[in-house]
Design brief:
Layout: H1 2-31, E1 49-50, E2 54-55, E3 61-68, E4 78-85, E5 97-101, E6 113-123, E7 132-138, H2 148-164
Antiparallel strand pairs: 1-3, 2-3, 3-4, 5-6, 6-7
Length: 165
């Protein structure tokens, strides 16, 4: 008889443990909010393709570029965007081409120019850019060392002219 009571107690304890576990799991599940299924909007719109920047007047400064994309369900298939073309030496490579330039090289005494090379960093708006560019600029005034005697002679000459006046 004691054995039966012990078995009943074991069965009751196991049953209560099972009920407790089920209650804990259902409470945890109930605390979680179900996220509504978000329907992914699948668009057949293509990527924007941009034209080059066209200046409003002249060959640099403010301008516009046209963008187009394809797709039957696209709300907008064309748009215009403001842009700017630099009014300096960079315009020869295109305003959409950004380069990382090395330091200027030494001055070439034959041409009086110094050069440096730039590697393409990024091309904006699908621009067609050169991978590497080389630019040149004048070295500036080449100073030749003047002998000190000539400066002294000039000063003396000016002093004598003032005395004669």
């Amino acid at each position: 008889m004691q054995q039966q009571q012990q078995q009943r107690r074991m069965f009751t304890a196991a049953f209560l443990a099972l009920v407790f576990i089920l209650a804990a799991v259902s409470t945890t599940e109930a605390g979680k909010k179900e996220k509504p299924d978000k329907k992914a909007k699948k668009s057949d719109c293509g990527e924007w393709q941009w034209s080059v920047c066209v200046p409003t007047s002249g060959d640099c400064g403010l301008g516009t570029r046209e963008g187009t994309r394809t797709g039957a369900e696209c709300k907008q298939t064309t748009k215009t965007q403001k842009c700017k073309i630099p009014c300096n030496w960079k315009k020869q490579f295109g305003a959409e081409c950004k380069y990382q330039f090395q330091a200027w090289g030494e001055c070439d005494l034959n041409t009086a120019l110094k050069t440096r090379t730039g590697n393409l960093k990024r091309a904006l708006h699908n621009a067609d850019c050169q991978k590497t560019v080389t630019i040149s600029k004048p070295c500036g005034k080449l100073t030749k060392p003047k002998p000190q005697e000539s400066k002294k002679k000039k000063k003396e000459g000016k002093k004598q002219e003032k005395m004669l006046d």
